[in-house]
Amino acid sequence: MAKVKMVAGEWGSLATDTQLTKEQIETKARGLLGQMSLDEKIHQMSGDTPLLSGGYEMMYTYNARPIPAGENLRLGIPGIRFSDGPRGVVMGNSTCFPVSMARGASWDVDLEERIGDAIGVEARSQGANFYGGVCINLLRHPAWGRAQETYGEDPHHLGEMGAALVRGVQRHIMACAKHYALNSMENARFKVDVRVKEGALREIYLPHFKRCVDVGVASIMSAYNKVNGQWCGHHTHLLREVLKGEWGFEGFVVSDFMWGVRDTKSAALGGLDIEMPFTRFYGKKLKRLVERGEVPEAVIDEAVLRILRQKIRFAQVGEPGRYDPSAVVSPAHQALAREAAQKSIVLLKNEASEKGGKPLLPIDRSSVRRIAFIGKLAPTPNIGDHGSSQVRPPYVITPLEAFRSYASDLSIDYDNGGKMDSAVEIARQADLVVAVVGYTHVEEGEYIPRVLFWPAKGGDRASLRLAEEDEKLIINLAGANPNLVVVMMGGSAIVTEAWREQAPAILMAWYPGMEGGKALVDVLLGEVNPSGKLPCAFPKSEDQLPFFDRDAVSIEYGYYHGYRLMDKKGYAPAFPFGFGLSYTTYEYSNLSLEREEIGLDGKLQVGVDITNRGQVAGEEIAQLYVGYPHAEVERPVKELKGFARVSIQPGETRRVEFNLLAQRLAYYDESEGWTVEPGDYKVYAGPSSDPQVLLGTGFRIRAS
Ligand code: BGC
Questions:
Q1: Is residue 1 part of a domain?
Q2: Which of 193, 433, 508, 644 could form a disulfide with 554 if both were Cys (CB 3.0 to 4.6 A apart)?
Q3: What angle do CA 47, 51, 54 make, to 5 degrees?
Q4: Ligand 1 centroid vs 55 CA: distance in angstroms?
Q5: Has residue 333 been placed in a domain?
Q6: Contact assessment for residue 374 and residue 436, using Cβ atoms and an 8 Å cutoff
C-alpha cells in the first residue's frame, strides 16, 4: 500500500507538557482552525488510506497498522490513528482477552476498566491514538452474528461495562463507542431499516450510549443500518438532535467503514464528522458542495473543531513511561486475560451424577484420576470471530493443552468426537468426561459479503442450538458415563433443551481468550470458584424471543426482548438473565430501604445482606431491579438498575448498598420527554432476574 505520510511523533505540534483547561483547548482549536484552508479543513474529515491499494491491504491484513484520517503535515497535526477491537488490540500480536460478551458475564466494572487500561497501553505502544473497540449495541436477539462483541442484553449493564472500558482506554488514547444505533443484525446490516418508537429508542436502545458520552468518550461510530428510514451515518435526529444536542456530546462522529456513508450532503448535514477509512464521499465532493453553498462552511468548521478539540485533549493524556513494544502481551496483561476468563465462565448446572452424591464439580481429585476430553473444540484455539475484531495473540492455551500442562497428575484421554463409537468407548473408561462443544467463527461472526473473488463469511446464526452431531454426542456420552461435564463455547445464548437434562454439569465458557484454557482448568479443578453470571437470558426455544429475520429489509424493534420479554409473557427461560452458580451458596436477607418515600429528584439507598453458606470463599454478583406495577404508561415488569460484585468468605455476611436515583426511573414520553411518574414502585434484590429468587419491597415517589 502506498504509505500515508504521517506527522512525526505521537502528537506532532499538539504535544504539550502542561495541562490545558477547557477554555485553553477551545482557544487552541479555534486558532488552528483559523490557520486552515478549506481543503485542509475538509481533509481533517476523512480517511487518508488510498482506496485501491489501501482497500487491497485491508482485505488481506486488516489493521496491521493504525488507520489514519486527517494527518496535516503543514501544521503538524496528526490524524486520528485507528485501531480496532474489542477483544484486545487488532494490530500486531496483542493480548487477546475474552470477548466482550464473556466480560459482560463478569459484571466486573473494575476489571473492565483495567482491561481498557491494558488495551490503551498496547494500542499506543503500536502507534495508535484512537481505539474503535467499545462495542455497546444491545443484544436484542442471540442469533446476532456479532453478539460476542457486545456485553449483553440490558442497557444499564451495557452502559456500566462500556463506560468502564472507555475510562480505562482513555487514560492513554481516544476511545470510540459503536455502532450508533440499533445495529444488532449482521447479514442485513447494509440494508435493514430498523423501525422503532421514540420510547423504546430512548429507554432501551440508547441509554448505554448516553452513559459513555457522560464519561467523556471522545468519539462515536455511526452504524450501517437505517433507523426509521434514514441511514445512521446521515441521521439528523440521532446525531444532531439527540447525541450532539440533548446529550451535549463534545467529541466527533466517525462513520462505520466503507458503507457507513451513502451521500455527501446528507452525511455532512446529518452530523457525520469523519468518513472512514477512505475519502469517497467527503474530500472534493464535500468541497464542491461548500463552494455551491449547499453545505454551509459553518458545518465544516463545527466538525473540524470537534476533531481538533479531542486531538488537543488527548495530546495531554497518558503515562509516557508505559508505551513500549514490551508492554504488548506483557506478563501483567496475560494475567489480566486469565483473570477475565476466570471471572467470565458461567456455571449453569452442577448436579450429582447419582442420587445422594456430591455435585460433579469441582473435580474431586481423590476419585477422579482419568479424564476423557471429547470434542473438536477441546484442542482448538477458539477465540472468536475472524472479522474486523480479530485479535492475533502470540499463543492461545486450549482446554486440552491446559489440562495436559497444568493438571499433569491426571491421566487425560482425547477424542474429537468425529466417530461416535470411539468417543463413547473412551468416555466409558474415564472417571469423568468433559465435552467441549459449541460455536466458532464459522457459524457466527461479522458478515463480510462476497467481494470479487473473496467469498462471503460470518453472519448471523442459523440456529441457536448446538450442531446436531454435538447434541447427539452429548446424549451418547451421557449414556456411556454419567459423570459428564459439558463446556459450551459461543458468543451468546445457546438453546440446550435437547440434552440439558442428561448432563449433570454445564459451563458456558464463551470465547475465553488466549488464557481461556487455563482459566477453565482453574474453574473445573476448583482453584477458582466460578462467579460469572449470564448477561443475556438463555431461552428454552426461539419462541421465547422477539421476531428475528436475518434477511429482513425492515424490522420493528420494540420494548421487549430478553428478560423483559420473559417477564411480560411469564416465560421461564432455560437459564435467566443474571444467573450463574458457584461452588458455594449465598443467602440473601434483610432487604431494606433507607426510607419509604422520595421526591422526583430524590435518592434512595437500598441495602441487602448476603451470607456465604458454603465451605469456600466466593464472589457473588448481586443485582438490583426496579418494577413499576402501577405505572400509567407501558413499562417492563422490572428493569436492572444496579449490580455489585462482592467477595464473601465462608460463613461471612456482607451488606451491599445500592443508590437509586428517582431520575433514573424515568420513562420517555414523546411530548413531555423524560418523565418520572409519582406513585408506587417495587425494588427487588437477589442473585438473578428470576422472580422466584428475588427479595422484594416497595417505595413511593412523591409528586413534588
Ligand atoms: C465494523 C466496525 C469496524 C470497522 C472497521 C466495520 O465493518 O462494523 O465495527 O470497526 O469495520 O473495521
A1: no
A2: 193
A3: 85
A4: 13
A5: no
A6: yes
